[in-house]
Amino acid sequence: MPLSEDEQRILAAIEEQLTTTDPSLAEKAEESIYRDAARNIRRSALVFVLGFLFLLFTFTTSIWLGFLGFLVMLGAAFRIEFYARSLSKAGLNSINEVVPLQNMREYWRQRTHDPRQFPGGSGPGGTGPRRRPGGPKDS
Predict the structure, then answer these.
(1) 49, pLDDT greater than 90
(2) pTM of the predicted model as reported, rounded to 2 decimal places
(3) Which three-class secondary structure state does DSSP give residue 20?
(4) Ramachandran region of residue 125, left (φ > 0), alpha (ψ -120 to 50) or beta?
(5) 23-58 and 5-21 are packed helices; what angle lies between their axes, rounded to 10 degrees?
(6) Greater pLDDT, 23 or 90
(7) Which residues contact 128 (CB under 8 A, 6 or more apart)?
(8) Separation between Cα atoms, residue 55 and residue 64, nearest integer Å
(9) Is the pLDDT of residue 78 over 70?
(10) Do residues 55 and 66 lie in contact, with contact meaning Cβ atoms separated by under 8 Å?
(11) Which tens digits make up the pLDDT trace of 111-120?
């Protein structure tokens, strides 16, 4: 169940207060979110591979054991997806704190309208794809 607007505001105030009073603790807490999620993804990937191997070796002898291997794989895949989402939510929240979403929209709007301003673009002076002589011309 998502937090209400008041609860989100209170939680943000608590986080801000923690960051101002003990920045090292706040940094350690943020790092542990990434570390725990990454560790759980690795473990789930290992369980997925083991479930696949179990499916592969038992399917020829018993379809029910093969199905059990499939269920293990399915559960591991759901765990991977869950932890990947939690990892991406934490990452998106930290990115939005550094660069607000409105600035990102403006950045991409400028980039799509005038690619020459950005190195690596395909406009003049950019390092985009090269055209062969005699190829299609711009109008």
Answers:
(1) yes
(2) 0.49
(3) helix
(4) left
(5) 120
(6) 23
(7) 115, 120, 121, 122
(8) 10
(9) yes
(10) yes
(11) 666 555 555 5
